[in-house]
Design brief:
This protein is of the alpha/beta class and 426 residues long. Helix 2 (15-24) runs antiparallel to helix 17 and helix 10 (232-246) packs parallel to helix 17. It has 18 helices and eleven strands. A five-stranded mixed sheet has the order 2-1-3-11-6. It has helices at residues 6-12, 15-24, 65-77, 88-100, 112-120, 139-142, 167-173, 183-195, 209-221, 232-246, 259-266, 281-284, 324-335, 337-347, 354-363, 368-376, 389-405, 410-424; strands at 50-55, 80-85, 107-111, 146-147, 150-151, 154-155, 161-166, 199-202, 271-277, 291-294, 311-314.
Amino acid sequence: MRPGFSGRRAAGMGAAVLVAATGLAACSSQPDGAGAPSAGAGQSAAGGGTYTIWDPYPQYDKSSDWVKLLDTCGTQAGVTVERTGYDTTDLTNKALLAAQQGNSPDVLIVDNPVVSTLAEAGVLTTTEENKLDVTSIAPNLLAAGQLGGKTYGIPIGANTLALYYNKEVLKKAGVDADSVKDWASLTAALEKVKAAGKKGITFSAIGTEEGSFQFLPWFWGSGANLTKLDSPEGVASVALWADWLKKGYAPNSVINNTQTTSWQEFATGDFAFGENGTWQLANAKKTGFDYGIIPIPAKDGGTAPAPTGGEFVSIPVQSDTARYATSQKLVSCLTSTDNSLTTTTTLSYIAPTEAVQTKQVEQNAELKVWVEAVKAAKGRTSDNLGTKYPKISEPMWGAVQAALSGSTAPQEAMAAAQSTAASATQ
């Protein structure tokens, strides 16, 4: 996972951040480094003026394609864009504080699990209010920005998880990657790899949101639902991982692995498989060995729904509602089909529309498996979970930790997690 970029944002917005963000909403201090006044702060709502955009991409400076696109969209809308890039956590806190002070930016780009938090806090307007067209957006990606039947922005792109594999390791073990279609065939492949003297699979099961992010494809792939952690399907997903550790198919280090350290293990060349994200493609090319990528298989076959990472472009609530028309032009420009290819290529994302996804695959055939994975993916706050998600995720990752360490049986661990989650979400 690239520091400060898509990988971290994909799995970094867990319970701690969302809880911290919600708690900070009660504060009233001026957010330092917030830049010049934004929406409604004396700017003219008529043509021209300055419109502010906050994003979670501080690594991009004025010379980058991203900032150039923002400036171009501003020019097309007849305004000057004043852009500030924040770290993801900092951005969430500042957005809540700015809203409380009536000083929100005109356009806000945030990690998708945060959308429901900001929407529930009354920070964001709906796409219906601002006449933003979302008809071409893939429904499963749009769902991450929905709460109570309303949509609060447009996904700028998405990343997700899949299985990287080492072709040489599989070849020596007599395993054909195309034979891995479900849990049984994957486990059989791991058994052959171990028998051949190599290591099976590495992933991140750390006790943070990163652990939940990596566990969800297996949990959802079993047919389980986050509202019932201790269902037979949910227990089976934990048991799968625990069994891999017991049999030596996965190392004990996964209990403390982040997505970065898990990738480092895979990059040694000793492992057959490594679960990781789109953001590792550049690093995969640097490993020095031939690799391939397959979707994470569901229990009984097909592609497991993996969680979506990526951001939404939203329009915060303003006291001067006349500003919305220009903000709508800015958002529409950033998410238009013409600009989406540039945006998603720059940010290493898969586009949220089928038309642009097709163009991406035409330019880079390696992205085909990622397009398939994104099509099967789902938002962590989908199913109308909204702000309940972090209250479920934390006990879930705790249960996974307990089961993998051998301190608690999978059934007992998930039963305890369900009890905690149910109490927290009542």
